Amino acid sequence: MVNMETPDRGLAGKVALIAGGGGIGGETARRLAAEGCKVMIGDLFADAAEATAKSIRESGGICAAHGYDQADDASVASLIEATVREYGTIDFLLANAADMAALTQDSDLLAIDLAIFDRTMAVGMRGVMMCARLALPHIVANRGALVFMSSGAAHAGEAQRFSYAMAKSAMNALMRHIARRWGPEGVRANAILPGLVLSDQVKERMDKAVVEQMKGAIPAGRLGETSDIAAMVAMLFSRDGEWVTGQTLSVDGGSSMRP
Ligand SMILES: NC(=O)c1ccc[n+]([C@@H]2O[C@H](COP(=O)([O-])OP(=O)(O)OC[C@H]3O[C@@H](n4cnc5c(N)ncnc54)[C@H](O)[C@@H]3O)[C@@H](O)[C@H]2O)c1
Questions:
Q1: Residue 89 burial by CB count (10 A; 0-12/13-18/19+): exposed, middle or buried?
Q2: What is the C-alpha to C-alpha distance for residues 112 and 74, in angstroms, rounded to an integer?
């Protein structure tokens, strides 16, 4: 006899903190709320985060928002405190924020304005580490999980945007550390490496001809949608992801293929 009951993915009632609630983060908030998570969206732009949270609440989900600056330790602490005040604990952290404005000015080692390097690292490396450090005690207590929004740039060896690649490589190293150190206590950590995803920001900034060209190089024949990445986050937080930890997972329509 085949069991035809819908599997319980174990997300209902869990508390998910999304640090960085724009394109991919906002869609992930929607997806996790739809699967029953209580969601906190943190973002530099508090009003935009609240607008996303409000639309989730209006659709019947549980979601709150908090403004914070990931480049500021005290502000990161305020996000963790706000989440625990709202929901009592944290089961899942999605470290999603990156300064995409700095990314547009990231260049090569000789040309870069060091202020851009510092900002990229403050938000994308130290800030990510602080989010994980302050959320971790709650996650350990709940045998929860972390997902880091990395990038294929971490290992692509690009001629430009090396600061971004350095921040994402550091993030991958942090993810592996957490997976190894707290794995025996039931905590899982993974990193997602999205291909080109059509968030509103990307739609606005990228040259249409370049987008068409990139599409042609993707085996799956289309660019990514924020929902493609949100689905992977939900899987990794859910029981379906119970034996997946310490991984960098490319979600990119096959643009990168690794053994
Ligand atoms: N879109 C893509 O094609 C793509 C590809 C690879 C990796 N990524 C990664 O996915 C993540 C999300 O990217 P996105 O495309 O949704 O971009 P996005 O700009 O829509 O989302 C990033 C969010 O981080 C927030 N943020 C920036 N600086 C912050 C700060 N100092 N404090 C708090 N919040 C801050 C922004 O306000 C924004 O809401 C990023 O980490 C990015 O590096 C995206």
A1: middle
A2: 28
Catalytic (active site) residue 164: yes
- The pLDDT of 113-125, averaged and rounded, is 98
Give 98-108 pLDDT, tens digit per residue: 999 999 999 99
19 CA to centre of ligand 1 in angstroms? 9
In ligand 1, which atom is closest to the CA atom of 195?
A: 5
Q: Pick the atom of ligand 1 nearest to 123's CA.
A: 31
Mean pLDDT of the chain: 95
User: Torsions phi, psi of 226, nearest 5?
Assistant: -60, -30
Question: Is the shortest distance between the CB of 169 and ligand 1 below 6 Å?
Answer: no
pTM over 0.90: yes
Note the Cα 179 to chain centre separation in Å. Answer: 16
Which two structure tokens, joined as six digits, stand for 141? 């207590």
Walk me through the domains of the chain, giving residue ranges and CATH numbers.
Answer: 15-197+225-249 (3.40.50.720)
Q: Which of 148, 164, 182, 237 is catalytic?
A: 164
The pLDDT tens digits of the residues spanning 122-160 come to: 999 999 999 999 999 999 999 999 999 999 999 999 999
